[in-house]
Hints:
CATH class: Mainly Alpha
Strand content: under 5%
Number of domains: 1
Shape: globular
Structural class: mainly alpha
Amino acid sequence: xxxxxxxxxxxSARAIWSWALFDFANSPFTTLVVTFVYSTYFTRAIxxxxxxxxxxxxxxxxxTALVVALSSPLLGALADRGGYRKLFVGVxxxxxxxxxxxxxxxxxxxxxxALTIFVIANIAFEFAEVFYNAFLTDVAPPGRVGxxxxxxxxxxxxGGLAAxxxxxxxxxxxxxxxxxxxxxxLGENIRATNLLVAGWFxxxxxxLFLWVREDKSRISASEHVLxxxxxxxxxxFLELRKHRQTVRFLLARLFYNDGLVTVFAFGGIYAGxxxxxxxxxxxxxxxxxxxxxxxxxxxxxxxxxxIGGKGTIAVSLVGLIIATSLAVLTTSAAGIWTAxxxxxxFAGPNQSASRSLMARFVPAEAENEFFGFFAFTGKLTAFIxxxxxxxxxxxxxxxxxxxxxxxxxxxxxxxxxxxxxxxxGSRVRGV
Length: 431
C-alpha cells in the first residue's frame, strides 16, 4: 500500500453538516420518484392499469436490488484500495440526475422506457449511498456516531418534505396553473417533478465535494489497485468469524430493511389505490410521513448514542410492527393516516441507527467494502418484499394482502437482531 491524504476532519462542524446535507440532497429521489409521485403516476398513467402497474414497478425495484447487491462489495473494496470514494459518489450523482431528467420525457404508455430509465436512476442512487455512508466514520467522533447519523437522516427527511411541498404547490396542485409553463396535458406537470429532483440532487451535493475530505492514507499503489481489491475481498471472507457480530447484524437487517424498502416503494401506491387518495392527497400523505420521520431521526439519534444502535433498532422495529399491522387492517382514511405517520416516526430512527451500528463495526481500513456489504445485505433479498407484494396483489386482486408481507419481514428482523452483541462488534473494530 501507499500513503495518501490523511483526513483530520473528524468532529469538524463544517464537515459534519456538509456530509449530512448529502442526505438532504438525495432524499427527494426516494420521496418523489420511488415512493409518492412518479411511482403513483406510473401505475395510473403509464402502465395499462393499477394492478399490473404495481407488479411491474415491483419488478423494477427487484432488478435494482439484485444489481446493487451483487456489485456493492466489489465496488466498495475497489474504492478502499484506489481512493475512489468521492469520485464514485460524483459519477452516481450525475447518472441519477441525468436519468431523472430523462424520465420527464417519458409519455403515457411507454412502460418499458419508463422502467428502464427508473432502474438506471435507482441503481446510481443506491451506489451513491454506499460510498456516502462510508464517510460517516471519517466525520463523526466515536461518541457521536448515532447523533451525526441521525442528523443526516433528519436532514434527508426534511429535504424530501421540502421537495414534496414545492412539487405540490408549483406543479401537482398549484393555485392556478402549473408553474414555469408546464401543462397538465399528458401529466407533464407530474413528470416535471423529476426535473426538480435532478436539480436538487446536484445542487445540494456540492458541499460534500467541497468540504468533506476522503481519507486516502491506506490506498494501494495505482498498479496494484485491482489486485489488492480482490485480495481485500478474499481476506474479509476468510475472517468472517472475526466479524461474526457484523454478520449477525447484517442477516437481521437483510429482513427488516426489506420491509422498509417495500414500504418506501409502495406506500404511495397503497394509499392511492386501496384508499383512493388523489395525487395531491398522496403527496400530502408523504409530507406528513417525512415530517414525522425527520424529527424522530434527529431526536432518537441522541438515544442511539446513549443506548446503542441495537437498542434503538429494536424499539423502532416494535413500533413498525404495530404501525404496519394497523395499515393492513384499517379500512378508514384516518386509520391509514395514523399508520403512515407512525411508520414515519419509527422508520427514520431505524435507518439512522442501522447506519450508525454498522459504522461502529466496520474496520477502518475497509470502510467502503463493509458498507458495500451493508448495501449487499440491504439489497440481496430486497426483491422479496416488492416481489411478493406484487405477486400477492396480482393473485388476490388486493394490495392489502400484498402489504401483509411487510409485517412478516419486520418480525423476522427483530428476532434476528436479538442475537447481535453490539459490545463485541465494537471491540473487534477497536472502538
